[in-house]
């Protein structure tokens, strides 16, 4: 199956009820102006016929290429969002629908939120961390997780994540790699126990920085590669992050966010700017192709039931050279 066809399927949105509460970015506001649902976002592939939806399941294999920009993260979106240094971007994370009523991410998925920036296409060690937030208030009760960026901040704020384009950043094409990490099963390591382990939700947004900035990104990290099994930010018991002594060991009330330190050229603070209305779809529609465990399935529908037409194997291919995205008719 042609990559373009898979991509076309991936940019349409799916009207489905999902059992699990996972998440990805549905839209981006630039200085409060919505750029339109799905625009500029390398949406993850669908992961099965209804009632399943986007492959918004977590990536847990730290060696997988999907750690970079999620499943099909190598496929360009036809739109690239134009920004200037100093612009305030707001990402809209959702699960089922782009609405305030949407649950964004399951209440149990406590963990940090991070944003990286890389030239597009990425090269070795090109992802630079520009924002992060982790555990910011300890829980008071035994086994209470405290306040985390994913649940107490982003979920509580209807899925909104704020980031600001670095001052003076040189013009060019970049990928913003935004990431939520669910640590609710991170007291086990995925390489030892694949049923559990930390859950990563990376999602990439294509931006073109314009203007006459001169600031270049320093060296950063690679995805995959930046995170290691067993490191403190990846192996962590959220229910030990409490003021009260827990019975579980090892137990710590501090949490070290994984990856490098935030680049000194990034803004130390991000603010929530006033947001204009959402433009574009807020719900999703049926789809006819999906990818699960690298198998691409193409189907037609008889009523609501998919009839499989063909399958093929998908292999991500990241070009080392920037190619202009193919616009859609
Ligand atoms: C998403 O929105 C559609 C259309 O309004 C609605 O039918 C559906 O129940 C919503 N899904 C969830 C899980 O809220
Ligand atoms: C971004 O937000 C900051 C803080 O509120 C504000 O000072 C700045 O003017 C905003 N940038 C733009 C381009 O609006």
UniProtKB/TrEMBL annotation:
Stretches assigned to the Auxiliary Activity family 9 catalytic domain: 22-243
The reaction(s) this protein catalyses: [(1->4)-beta-D-glucosyl]n+m + reduced acceptor + O2 = 4-dehydro-beta-D-glucosyl-[(1->4)-beta-D-glucosyl]n-1 + [(1->4)-beta-D-glucosyl]m + acceptor + H2O
CDD domains on file: LPMO_AA9
One of the GO biological process terms: cellulose catabolic process
InterPro entries documented for this protein: AA9, AA9_LPMO
Highest taxon in the source lineage: Eukaryota
Enzyme class, UniProt record, top EC level: oxidoreductase
Protein EC: 1.14.99.56
GO MF annotations in UniProt: hydrolase activity; metal ion binding; monooxygenase activity
Key words, A-Z: Carbohydrate metabolism, Cellulose degradation, Copper, Disulfide bond, Hydrolase, Metal-binding, Monooxygenase, Oxidoreductase, Polysaccharide degradation, Secreted, Signal
Signal peptide: 1-21
Compartmental location: Secreted
GO cellular component labels: extracellular region
Pfam families named among the record's database cross-references: AA9 (PF03443)
Known cofactor(s): Cu(2+)
PANTHER family found in the cross-reference section: ENDO-BETA-1,4-GLUCANASE D, PUTATIVE (AFU_ORTHOLOGUE AFUA_1G12560)-RELATED
Family: Belongs to the polysaccharide monooxygenase AA9 family.
Protein name: lytic cellulose monooxygenase (C4-dehydrogenating)
């Amino acid at each position: 199956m042609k990559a373009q066809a898979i991509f076309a399927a991936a940019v349409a949105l799916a009207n489905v009820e999902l059992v699990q509460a996972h998440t990805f970015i549905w839209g981006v506001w630039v200085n409060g102006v919505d750029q339109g649902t799905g625009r500029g976002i390398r949406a993850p592939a669908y992961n099965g016929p209804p009632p399943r939806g986007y492959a918004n399941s977590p990536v847990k294999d730290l060696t997988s290429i999907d750690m970079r920009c999620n499943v099909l993260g190598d496929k360009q979106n036809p739109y690239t969002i134009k920004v200037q240094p100093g612009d305030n971007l707001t990402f809209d994370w959702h699960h089922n629908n782009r609405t305030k009523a949407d649950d964004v991410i399951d209440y149990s998925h406590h963990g940090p939120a991070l944003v990286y920036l890389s030239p597009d296409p990425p090269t070795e060690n090109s992802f630079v961390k520009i924002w992060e937030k982790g555990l910011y208030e300890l829980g008071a009760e035994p086994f209470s997780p405290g306040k985390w960026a994913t649940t107490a901040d982003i979920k509580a704020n209807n899925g909104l994540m704020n980031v600001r384009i670095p001052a003076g950043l040189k013009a060019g094409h970049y990928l913003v790699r935004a990431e939520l990490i669910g640590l609710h099963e991170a007291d086990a390591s995925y390489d030892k126990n694949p049923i559990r382990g930390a859950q990563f939700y990376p999602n990439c947004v294509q931006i073109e920085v314009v203007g006459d900035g001169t600031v270049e990104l320093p060296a950063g990290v690679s995805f995959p590669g930046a995170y290691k099994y067993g490191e403190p930010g990846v192996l962590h018991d959220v229910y030990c992050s409490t003021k009260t002594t827990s019975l579980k060991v090892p137990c710590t009330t501090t949490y070290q966010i994984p990856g490098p330190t935030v680049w000194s050229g990034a803004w130390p603070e991000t603010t929530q700017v006033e947001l204009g209305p959402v433009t574009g779809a807020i719900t999703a529609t049926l789809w006819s192709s999906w990818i699960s465990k690298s198998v691409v399935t193409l189907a037609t529908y008889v009523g609501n039931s998919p009839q499989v037409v063909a399958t093929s194997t998908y292999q991500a291919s990241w070009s080392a050279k920037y190619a202009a995205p193919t616009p859609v008719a």
